Amino acid sequence: MSKRDDLIAKYAADLKDKCGMTPDMGLLTKVTIGCGPSIYNDDASTVSGSDEGELETVKNNFLIKKLGLADSAKLDEGIAKCIDTYGKSNRSKYRAVVYYMLTKHFGKESVYG
């Protein structure tokens, strides 16, 4: 297996064990590929759920630019719900997992068609 395949398996395990979700492996793979090389960088591969700047970046760069959602309070609520589901005490929130959950939450799977 490639390094990316190993990471996707790790992300799937997080979704199952920490978030109580059964991942759609096709979508998870596409979301992971969409994250680009950031998945291989320890700092860039995770999202800090307590860093407002980081959450603003997720909102602007992923939800608005990538998924094409309009800026509204619903985006902040979606991010908060995702962070709660992943577990606030869980320090390693993988970016691909957060993006996958947000894609599902907002019903934007078609972006990865």
In the CATH hierarchy, what is the architecture at level 2?
Orthogonal Bundle
Which homologous superfamily in CATH is the superfamily? Answer: Jann4075-like
**Radius of gyration, in angstroms, nearest whole number:** 13 Å
For the biggest sheet, the summary is: 2 strands, antiparallel
| Derived structural class | mainly alpha
| CATH secondary-structure class | Mainly Alpha
Shape: globular
Tell me the series of helices and strands, N- to C-terminal: HHEHHEH
Rounded to the nearest angstrom, the distance between the terminal CA atoms is: 24 Å
Give the percentage of residues in beta strands: under 5%
CATH topology: Recoverin, domain 1
Tally of DSSP β-strands: 2
Bin the helical content: 55-70%
Q: Which stretches of 5+ consecutive residues score pLDDT under 50? A: none
Number of domains: 1
Count up the helices: 5
Query: How is the largest sheet built, in terms of strand order?
Result: 1-2
Mean pLDDT: 96
Features:
single chain, 113 residues, mainly alpha, Recoverin, domain 1, two-stranded antiparallel ribbon, 5 helices
